[in-house]
Amino acid sequence: MSTMTFGRAINAGLRKAMENDPKVVLMxxxxxxxxxxxxxxxxxxxDFGQHRVMDSxxxxxGILGTAVGMAYRGYRPVIEIQFDGFIYPAFxxxxxxxxxxxxxxxxxxxxxxxxxxxxxxxxxxxxxxxxSPEAYFTHTSGLRVISVSNPQDAYVMIQQxxxxxxxxxxFEPKRRYHVKxxxxxxxxxxxxxxxxxxxxxxxxxxxxxxxxPLVPTARDAATAASDDGVSVEVIDLxxxxxxxxxxxxxxxxxxxxLVITHEAAQSGGLGAxxxxxxxxxCFYHLExxxxxxxxxxxxxxxxxxxxxxxxxxxxxxxxVDRVLDRPNxxxxxxxxxx
Amino acid sequence: xxxxxxxxxxxDELVQLIxxxxxxxxxxxxxxxxxxVDGPALQALYEDMVVIRRIDxxxxxxxxxxxxxxWPPLLGQEAAQIGSGRALREDDFVFSxxxxxxxxxxxxxxxxxxxxVWRGNASSGWDPYGINMATPxxxxxxxTLHATGYAMGIxxxxxxxxxxxxxxxxxxxxxxxxxxxxxxxxxxxxxxxFCQNNHWAISEPVxxxxxxxxxxxxxxxxxxxxxxxxxxxxxxxxxxxxALDRARTGGGPTFIEAVTYRMGxxxxxxxxxxxxxANELEDWAAKDPIARLAGLLxxxxxxxxxxxxxxxxxxxxxxxxxxxxxxxxxxxxxxxVFKHVYSEPNSWLARQQDQYERYLASFESSNSDSTELxxxxx
Lengths: 338, 378
Ligand SMILES: Cc1ncc(C[n+]2csc(CCOP(=O)(O)OP(=O)(O)O)c2C)c(N)n1
Hints:
Number of helices of chain A: 12
Bound molecules: thiamine diphosphate
Distance between the termini of chain A: 52 Å
CATH architecture of the largest domain in chain A: 3-Layer(aba) Sandwich
Number of strands of chain A: 14
Largest sheet of chain B: 5 strands, parallel
CATH architecture of the largest domain in chain B: 3-Layer(aba) Sandwich
Largest sheet of chain A: 7 strands, mixed
Structural class of chain A: alpha/beta
Helix content of chain A: 25-40%
CATH superfamily of the largest domain in chain A: Thiamin diphosphate (ThDP)-binding fold, Pyr/PP domains
Strand content of chain A: 15-25%
CATH superfamily of the largest domain in chain B: Thiamin diphosphate (ThDP)-binding fold, Pyr/PP domains
Strand content of chain B: 5-15%
CATH topology of the largest domain in chain A: Rossmann fold
Helix content of chain B: 40-55%
Number of strands of chain B: 7
Oligomer: heterodimer
Radius of gyration of chain B: 22 Å
Order of helices and strands of chain A: EHEHEHEHHEHEHEEEEHEEHEHEHH
Strand order of the largest sheet of chain A: 3-2-4-5-7-6-12
Number of domains of chain B: 2
CATH class of the largest domain in chain B: Alpha Beta
Number of domains of chain A: 2
CATH class of the largest domain in chain A: Alpha Beta
Largest interface: A-B, 60 and 59 residues
Number of helices of chain B: 13
């Protein structure tokens, strides 16, 4: 066991994967000498050389497209997209090529790409630096999408993503890069699966589902709620596509109430998918309609206002009050309800 | 995999009207574009460059003092921006990236507006139609297509304005920039591609983006190109005027590569010592664009103390106004987050806004100050 930051844990996982498999190569902008703008690849070029840690020309479609070619050739490229907002120039290669090649070739061609995306807000950045684009990718069949929330998972799941023969989008909550945690580097990464959700806090009154950057906030909300006599079960999805609905379902059958929270905009987002799927699966166990606490349907706002957009502890607790029919911000039914 | 780190500057190929020590160099092809640039005009260019450097330094200081979240310095690129920016007509339209504050200054931007975005108070700093310049683009290279489309519109309108787009050496790798050149050539659009090759794209040297001089690519698209000494304000003015004239008279697009150097960090969040050799910086500091023009002015007796003092006073005054404007900028309101998402009402958003208003109202102390609601600070 050692204590390391989230960012350092990803670095250690990348190192381990590169040591274990010479076909693992890293590609991205500024990932070499600089170690990436967040220093996640720090020191890897020095130790593995320029042919395995490749600074790419400044072209995201180019990076993804050439990674496809390298995968054809038997490599396992790990791509760093510098910031979430810069994945869009590569969108075509990801959704039309990376996602579909296995299907198109009836399984003959594997696309074991890992696409690392620092995502989400809360760091006071200018526009295009704080997006939550996960739903675009969960909507695309052929891709696996995961999001990590703590150093141990980050360390293990980056290796699982790289080991997967499917293309994986690996979303890293950038505002948590400096959070420290215990990491056991001796774990057998085949002993667990990145597809499994994790119950972070057990509880019996409300199920609170989240992932990535909001997991610590959700945990804090559970603590605050318990001070108030409400027992909240917090689930960290980890995998966003496919979603481990069995774990969520089991929890909701127990609690009868579901709150989903994410930073991404509400409409057409993952919260909608979870609410619908859980309603289908356990309609008769629900005591209240599922409630979503999410970012608004707006372009990510400028930094002075971003904390209005991002769900925080109080907004999550307000959502918990809503599913419990306790007094909440919407209790007085005036104004719009549509 | 062998990496291409070739440095491509070939000084003999560059259009240069002012030599490294400030001596005026004759150039048969380009002198005619600057015949009218007399003493006062040269002094005005000098003033522009000193002022914009001062603005840059002030903004960097404001960032260090926590008044700005981030700042992308242009230190070293004053000649490329002022030389090209001062060549433009009012009805020309600029599509730039985030580093072209010198160009914005030439367009007449209200200085406080430059800082709005970097303070985190707004998504854009100015009304594009107010100064005929789009708000700065962060997505690398995207603006080159916008400029080309704007130029196609000019063409359709039968006007003789020109669209000018600014981007870096790194941007030339993007598909968008290459696609922009295809469109520009196909339609013979009146657009100028102004590439500031400042040698670095964050930590990546220009050799990683291009194996031949960047300007050599354009002819392959059917676009004439020129490499200019980007630290020579007069040469930048001359090549831009030539390109503008070509565009206005139906000659189509031009690609200009201004070879210059980013002397500061990429942004205030960057640490260039991790990737850049100190000697390289020293070499380029010796080619400082302001010192070069000062040399020329001095040799012609055009830089007496009255002039340098007046310029310095103006620069200090501008910097003081910039600081004042920054610090006294109005803070945004919580519900501003819902403004301008659409031009017509949207029922989904209206519901969210209503609910959030009620949420805010549910706090007894009803505090709409954003900083009170943060769960962590930046
Ligand atoms: C599509 C996209 N990818 C990556 C980035 C991140 N980024 C911002 S500036 C920059 C370097 C740009 O270099 P260059 O085009 O040479 O312009 P310069 O900054 O030197 O003026 C990068 C990689 C971005 N803004 N947009």
